[in-house]
Specification:
Elements: E1 2-6, E2 14-17, E3 28-32, E4 38-42, E5 49-52, E6 60-64, E7 71-74, E8 90-95, E9 102-107, E10 113-117, E11 126-131, E12 138-141, E13 145-149, E14 159-164, E15 172-176, E16 183-186, E17 192-196, E18 203-206, E19 209-210, E20 221-224, E21 227-230, E22 237-240, E23 247-250, E24 257-260, E25 267-271, E26 292-296, E27 303-307, E28 314-317, E29 321-324, E30 327-332, E31 336-340, E32 346-349, E33 357-360, E34 369-371, E35 387-391, E36 411-415
Parallel strand pairs: 1-3, 2-4, 3-5, 4-6, 5-7, 6-8, 7-9, 8-10, 9-11, 10-14, 11-15, 12-16, 15-17, 16-18, 17-22, 18-23, 22-24, 23-25, 24-26, 25-27, 26-30, 27-31, 28-32, 31-33, 32-34
Antiparallel strand pairs: 12-13, 13-14, 19-21, 20-21, 28-29, 29-30, 35-36
Length: 418
């Protein structure tokens, strides 16, 4: 395996490294320690490693993995070294090429870096982001990017960002948080997402509220009676809170959420959402229907709270599920189960777990609680029973008898909801 180190380049220059011959069978590790100009690097046909530790201010590195299962490392986790992604407006453009390629990037507070994935729709591609131990990490996720926002409270902020162009595809994304009290905001997702929390008290927000569509930047928003909300996730999300007292707030999730509090006193809050009335004079509540939220509180004093809408909502709670008003929630290892609403909601309790303390908060004294009724009124919730089936293939070739009737294996299909 060959190693090639780039310690500096000429000021305002363009440096080309590679490409290597198609018959070249070497595996390469290419290290970029610093540049003073733009650089383009092309790997070979085997599994190459690219390490970018520092780029000059405003400089750009374009890296082509070409063949093989290639990996791009951006920055270092070891804070004792000076080799970190440096300050201002550096850009890395990455095309892994064929094979199963991966990116492993370090996001450091106040370090601005833009990683752009392009022309990489082949193979099983993954991206991993690690927040180093510095001031708390604030992550913002949308359909086309993952960003670390350096000043979430301000109107203008610098950020570190990993974005995906239309010509690329990421199959799975992984996020590791640091030891501070971090925040992760999901407007949407670019891939199946796994998050590992840190030892501090982390906060996770799935779906966000907006006052208008002006800041949506071509993002799909749903109009509700309380304003506009983002879709939360286009792909399944798994979040492991790890240590600390973590909080999960779900406003909207279009795909399954697997939430694990792990240790500490963790809290899940899920809010029902009501769509704005249409012009047909429809009287029934038009709920925004969420996908499944599956919560495992873990150890500690963990709680699940459901917030209703301005309509007369109807919910059903059991020892392991809470449904109604557009919500589908499963839970285990929790100590408190509660609900709150603005109107005269109806909560039906069916075989609740005696070890769970049920706290039912409501501003209206009219809230009726029904315990183990003979008949349960209909509720609005996703059907999670699902369906299974097989797609059969048939090959017809009118002008080629060698292919006509050729056997093609069928495909099994599992539909979680219809």
């Amino acid at each position: 395996r060959h190693q090639f180190d780039i310690h500096s380049t000429a000021p305002e220059s363009f440096t080309l490294v590679g490409p290597y011959d198609a018959g070249d069978e070497y595996y390469r590790d290419i290290y970029v320690h610093n540049t003073q100009g733009n650089i383009e690097i092309a790997g070979g046909e085997n599994n190459d490693g690219f390490y970018v530790y520092d780029l000059g201010e405003g400089k750009e590195a374009t890296i082509f993995g070409k063949g093989g299962d290639d990996t791009l490392w951006v920055g270092r986790i070891d804070n004792s070294t000076d080799e970190q992604i440096d300050a201002m407006a550096s850009t890395i453009r990455w095309s892994g090429g064929g094979g199963n390629d991966s990116i492993d990037a370090v996001f450091e507070a106040a370090k601005k870096i833009d990683i752009e994935i392009f022309d990489d729709a082949r193979g099983i591609n993954t991206a991993t982001i690690t927040c180093v131990d510095s001031p708390k990490c604030v992550i913002w996720s949308r359909e086309s990017f993952i960003a670390s926002v350096h000043n979430m409270s301000g109107l203008i902020s610098t950020l570190s960002k990993m974005s995906v162009r239309d010509s690329a595809y990421v199959h799975a994304a992984f996020l590791r948080l640091n030891g501070e009290e971090n925040e992760v905001h999901f407007d949407d997702t670019l891939a199946v997402f796994d998050v590992i929390g840190g030892p501090g008290n982390d906060n996770f927000y799935i779906g966000r509220e907006y006052n208008s569509t002006e800041l949506s930047q071509d993002m799909l928003l749903t109009n509700t009676v309380n304003g506009y909300i983002s879709k939360g996730n286009s792909h399944p999300i798994t979040i492991n809170g790890n240590f600390g007292d973590d909080e999960f707030l779900v406003l909207h999730n279009t795909q399954v959420l697997d939430l694990n509090g792990d240790s500490g006193n963790d809290k899940l809050e899920v809010r029902s959402q009501l769509a704005t009335p249409d012009m047909t004079g429809m009287q029934l509540p038009d709920y925004i229907v969420n996908s499944l939220v599956d919560f495992n509180g873990g150890t500690g004093d963990d709680s699940v709270f459901v917030a209703g809408t301005v309509a007369n909502d109807s919910y059903v709670a059991t020892s392991s599920e809470f449904r109604g008003a557009g919500l589908s929630i499963k839970y285990k290892s929790i100590e408190q189960l509660g609900s709150t609403s603005e109107e005269s909601d109806k909560l039906t309790l069916l075989a609740t777990d005696p070890s769970q303390v049920s706290n039912l908060f409501n501003d209206s004294p009219k809230i009726p609680d029904v315990i183990n009724p003979l008949q349960v009124d209909p509720i609005i919730s996703k059907n999670l029973k699902g369906h299974k089936g097989i797609i059969e293939h048939q090959v017809l070739a009118l002008n080629d008898t060698g292919y006509s009737g050729l056997y093609v294996e069928g495909t099994t299909v599992n539909v979680l909801d219809n």
